[in-house]
Amino acid sequence: MFPQFAGTSETLSKAASSLVFRIGTDAHLYDDPEDVNIGALLESRFDSEKCEALKRLLALIAQGFDVSNFFPQVVKNVASQSLEVKKLVYLYLLHYAEKRPNEALLSINCFQKDLGDPNPLVRAWALRAMAGIRLHVISPLVLVAVGKCARDPSVFVRKCAANALPKLHELRQEEITSAIEEIVGILLNDRSPGVVGAAAAAFASICPNNFTLIGRNYRNLCQILPDVEEWGQILLIEILLRYVVASHGLVKESIMSSLLCIESSHSEKDVFDVNVALEDNGIPSRTYDSELVNLVSRSYIEGLGEYLTRSSDTNARLSDLNGARFTSGQTNDDVKLLLQCTSPLLWSHNSAVVLAAAGVHWIMSPKEDIKRIVKPLLFILRSSGASKYVVLCNIQVFAKALPHLFVPHYEDFFVSSSDSYQSKALKLEILSSIVTESSISSVFKEFQDYIRDPDRRFAADTVAAIGLCARRLPKMANTCVEGLLALIRQELLTSDIESGNGEADVLIQSIISIKSIIKQDPSCHEKVIIQLFRSLDSIKVPEARVMIIWMVGEYSSVGVKIPRMLTTVLKYLAWCFKSEAVETKLQILNTTIKCPCFHI
Amino acid sequence: MLQCIFLLADNGAVILEKQLTGHRVDRSICDWFWDHVISQGDSFKSMPVIASPTHYIFQIVRAGITFLACTQVEMPPLMGIEFLCRVADILSDYLGELNEDLIKDNFVIVYELLDEMIDNGFPLTTEPNILREMIAPPNIVSKMLSVVTGNSSNVSDILPGATASCVPWRPTDVKYANNEVYVDLVEEMDAIINRDGVLVKCEIYGEVQVNCLLSGLPDLTLSFANPSILHDVRFHPCVRFRPWESHQILSFVPPDGQFKLMSYRVKKLKSTPIYVKPQLTSDAGTCRISVMVGIRNDPGKTIDSIILQFQLPPCILSADLTSNHGTVNVLSNKICTWSIGRIPKDKAPSLSGTMVLETGLETLRVFPTFQVEFRIMGVALSGLQIDKLDLQNVPNRLYKGFRAVTRAGEYEVRS
């Protein structure tokens, strides 16, 4: 009707709707928490006002302010009947208990009373709060509480008991350690998968080498593994794997063992190397480097964290640990059971579980069965974008050890423009490790497209990958060199190549790749060296000039044409010596010395 | 295990911190992280695992919010990354979407969620159904109620029955008047078309999303008509392995509400629904571009929301682009977007224009890649067909609904 009123009503309705959205939210607490007197609210009779005060305190904590001075007043509310108040008090308490130990102790009685509450949620919170206080004086009380809750009828409470154990253990009190481990053992034997998962986490942080606890329950643990929830599965898989390696040794038929085996013809090796010969049906089979086997086995038995942080002299002392043992995957039931129970986990929707299961198969599975990990790993690259980089790092290791596993799947490593730079670099490396004569033509077609990518760093990486492929597949060497020379010719037509420029990187990388190809068989590539030298005039980048001049010097006696050109070469180098960069000058001198002198 | 979680806004400011263990992690780690993001740019931002001088940092970025988790002990890195992804999923489920203001508006819920999801650095409860029972999501009604009654408690005082059952992903006492199950096939087409116009790779990544509104404890069986086309599969924890291993049948007790039952991939598709033909020619410092878009393989349903996006290479100073259908926008970061919508019946949409190269450059040597988006409602281009969906103990009225949609996923055309 009237434009000025319409404007107002629109702004009014906008304000009203934003008000509606902000009503009932805690936004006001975040923005201006200092406004109201928190202390007064905490003393109020009304639960709602106490909640308001506690939420304001939490807002301050979330922003990083220190509000520990309200501790005594907050603690007084721990016995509140309202669950909301209780929950908020617990959150505050757990944040500040270490700073105010004496006042935290005031609430212990209340927690102990709550441990007997008929509501399992209250029992669980009380246990979590007690364990979260982390004070030495109350650790016996907490131990008793945890022990009681480990036998609680509610699954949730038993799970919280398992979670409380590492907190107790962190207090580092010798006298309660064995009691804690006993409770871990009880919980590992629990019938509920949820509790077993939490118990596995407790085991991993408290007593990761206490393999008797695992040995007692091995079959049950393997069989309950598919039902344990995902986070517990990750840790439980690792624990079971380490148990099998510790009690049985490495599996003979697996890829791990074959990577550790050495040729028996290396008799000129260090005489102190003690080699373990494996007898198999009376026929001596491969020999293993026992040092390496010991190393690998110990790293699994002790757990990677422990192993990496130990200093090197203690490594020598623990050599009495017999790691150089082997077992057969075909006859050992424990190994077979573990492989069988982890196979379905390769289909889990949690990529950490898939990778852990793939790791078990990589280490324990016989070589003919190992290809079952390939498709699940490749699927993670597409279905879990955040996990792509970590899985690519692992695939890189697998592909270097067993390239034939990934050869049929080379298309999965084609670079997409949405990949991060690091993922692209990893994919290029993997492609160059798995390329074969049948796939090389499509791979090279892709590479040609990548070289035209606006990101010149990625283009330079592609050129390096071409060099790697050519080294692995010598039959393609000529094609590669032709392609690289064409690329260099094209690069030189662009006028603005300067050192440090992206284009310069591509040029330099092309020459590096050509150099590495020539190294394989210099006499075949005589013409290439000559061609490069002839283009020296148009190449201004010092790093590139250095390499070409080096090549002439290094291969100065190769073939027929190069020795004949040497006079011309040296004359040219002398003529441009004065205007060169320092590193080029040094290389010219180097080359001159290398050239045979009979023409001078 | 994890020691601390930080949520950072898109300017690096800390929105929220949650200390998880007794070892306090100082906020200076966030400053260190952000300094590196500023100095090293995108390559640092996309690294999911970073080693700082004091801690290992896991990071993911969703909707501009950076989720950081710090630890000083050795742990499987994917565990940290997957957990952060789960936190982001649950928060966006609870709050509707992820943005800084929503998190600040509901920080107590976020804090309580984090407290339930992770305890002493080890993930405790990440099942959406259980969390929803313990901590009620914010919605307009409960907010109004809390203002009116003064009771702003969203914390349940009853332990969810699901935590004790052997199907922990499903609440135990679910009742619906109408029993309904909806199954959606949500697919994304990934394709690479190279400079010569050849289709290098064409695959479909798909998800079977189920919305289950059934009472009690239903036991469902879902089978496909052609499961052999599935190249890869991944399942929700509720799916039983043995029926799939032996007969390719999905047998499961579903969670309540919306969930992702399985994800799959179908490979080696022969052709794409639309074609995009870019052409760039350059001469004496200017470059002419022309892009044509059209329908190649009509899927039978309308293709809509077609958008083409590409980044102008750094050597291009300015661009003047027009199209005969749809709108063209060039942003300041040199990303050009052409929103086509639907392909009209009478003409083929085409984009054309000229671009000026930087001084000294005669011809264009590097070529942009075009990202394509589209949506086709009502069809699953992989050809996957659902055969039947059965329910043990069928109630009186059961409604089953099936839908499909295909979008473009990682679909790129090189020029």
UniProtKB/TrEMBL annotation, chain A:
<protein>
    <submittedName>
        <fullName>AP3-complex subunit beta-A</fullName>
    </submittedName>
</protein>
TrEMBL record, chain B:
<feature type="domain" description="MHD">
    <location>
        <begin position="178"/>
        <end position="414"/>
    </location>
</feature>
<keyword id="KW-0653">Protein transport</keyword>
<dbReference type="GO" id="GO:0012505">
    <property type="term" value="C:endomembrane system"/>
</dbReference>
<dbReference type="InterPro" id="IPR018240">
    <property type="entry name" value="Clathrin_mu_CS"/>
</dbReference>
<dbReference type="InterPro" id="IPR011012">
    <property type="entry name" value="Longin-like_dom_sf"/>
</dbReference>
<keyword id="KW-0813">Transport</keyword>
<keyword id="KW-0472">Membrane</keyword>
<dbReference type="Pfam" id="PF00928">
    <property type="entry name" value="Adap_comp_sub"/>
</dbReference>
<comment type="similarity">
    <text>Belongs to the adaptor complexes medium subunit family.</text>
</comment>
<protein>
    <recommendedName>
        <fullName>MHD domain-containing protein</fullName>
    </recommendedName>
</protein>
<dbReference type="InterPro" id="IPR036168">
    <property type="entry name" value="AP2_Mu_C_sf"/>
</dbReference>
<dbReference type="GO" id="GO:0030131">
    <property type="term" value="C:clathrin adaptor complex"/>
</dbReference>
<dbReference type="GO" id="GO:0006886">
    <property type="term" value="P:intracellular protein transport"/>
</dbReference>
<dbReference type="InterPro" id="IPR028565">
    <property type="entry name" value="MHD"/>
</dbReference>
<dbReference type="InterPro" id="IPR050431">
    <property type="entry name" value="Adaptor_comp_med_subunit"/>
</dbReference>
<dbReference type="InterPro" id="IPR001392">
    <property type="entry name" value="Clathrin_mu"/>
</dbReference>
<dbReference type="GO" id="GO:0016192">
    <property type="term" value="P:vesicle-mediated transport"/>
</dbReference>
